[in-house]
Amino acid sequence: MPFQPYAPFFQPKELDTLTAAFNATLQELRASGIDLSSEDKVALVKRKLAQRILVSATAGGVRDLETLKEQALRSLAGGFRLRDEETYAPEAA
Question: Which of 25, 38, 51, 54 is least buried, going by the fewest C-beta atoms within 10 A?
Answer without folding.
Answer: 38
